[in-house]
Amino acid sequence: MKTGYKAVLGIAALAAVAVLGAALWEGQWGAPALAITAAPDAKRGEYLIRAGGCIACHTEERVLKDKGPVLGGGRALKTPFGTFHAPNITKEPVHGIGKWSDADFVHAFRAGRAPSGHNYFPAFPYTSFAGADDSDLVDIKAYIFSLPAEAKPNKPHAVDFPYNIRFGLTFWKWMYFDRARFRRDETKSAEWNRGAYLVNHLAHCGECHTPRDGLGGAKRAMAFAGAPDIEGGIAPNITPDEETGIGKWTDSNIVDVLKTGFMPDGNFVGGAMTDVVNHGTSLLTDEDLKAIAVYLKSVKPVRNKVEKKKQ
Questions:
Q1: How far is CA 131 from the centre of its chain?
Q2: Are 19 and 248 spatial neighbours (Cβ–Cβ below 8 Å)?
Q3: Confidence class of residue 233 from pLDDT cuts 50, 70 and 90?
Q4: Separation of CA 230 from chain center
Q5: Do 153 and 55 belong together in one domain?
Q6: What is the tens place of the pLDDT at every residue in 13-32?
């Protein structure tokens, strides 16, 4: 009996240490001060928010089609863990982010935490946005705050147990969340580095195009090798593998797909990618689209034929 009691105490102590360690690893709960001297640029933020795909995710489909007010939230993202509803991110102070400071906004992307301290689910792709520049994020916020406020309540997530326990995300972050900022590779061209920044961070292409394990962590060895998408279709393999990826595409082919949605085989992109193109990449400069193409053609080719999951 004593041995069993000691074992229980030992397990409890280990659990307490794990919880404390996770809490300490999370670091400062409040948003750290920003070291930005330039005034926020809303016009630049309008361009960057398109690169980030924020409008497509944070606006309901019917609103996008009607060309109504954007960023009021409500769009559903169906995942193996449940359905997430993108929140209202307009400047409305009750249902939106109107009370957030610039530091709060940046910290949400850097740490995956709300100003109140709770963890965000990684359906919000902070795992990619964490590498973005502070100035880019502050400019995005400036653009958001230049738009009308929408007094639209947020829809609750419908997430299965135990994935709905937000504290558990502290441990998930411990395993999967790399908070490293983007670092230029000085052996590569400026164009390649721009493409790497867009693909890996601001445009967060890997969030949809990289397969995930049973806990929802990205399989980094298969980066960009394709996965089922959030709307029942597929996010195809976009590595330069010649059989299952885009290895036979030219840089111009990639630019055309991102600008028009028209693919080399004569089909158009579908699923979630339709809105990504219509409300995001089609509005980027040819220079940025070419940079994306150059970077994608340089990543490790992975042979992986992605097929639509049976319902």
A1: 11
A2: no
A3: confident
A4: 13
A5: yes
A6: 444 444 444 454 454 456 77
